[in-house]
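name: query_chain
kind: protein
chains: 1
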Amino acid sequence: MDEKMSLLICLGASAAANCIPCFEYYHKKASASGLTPEEILEAVELANKVKSGTNLLMRNSIKTFMGSEASPASCGCGPSQRSCCD
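structure:
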């Protein structure tokens, strides 16, 4: 894996983990490596799609546990064929 790909993964992971200091650190390295703002934003948006899918699953699990009806949508990583990652 090249350095730019590694930095994009680190930026996405930082965004998904809500780690601002991590994101700032990797953003500085990514900018210095020649990554464009568009490339960085694309990595962050992909991470946010995955994160929003897991957030929906957590909310639905809590609703089910509490006896409420869960939302029919899912993150799509399962058998429902709906995808947060597309």
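note: The CA atoms of residues 26 and 64 lie 38 Å apart.
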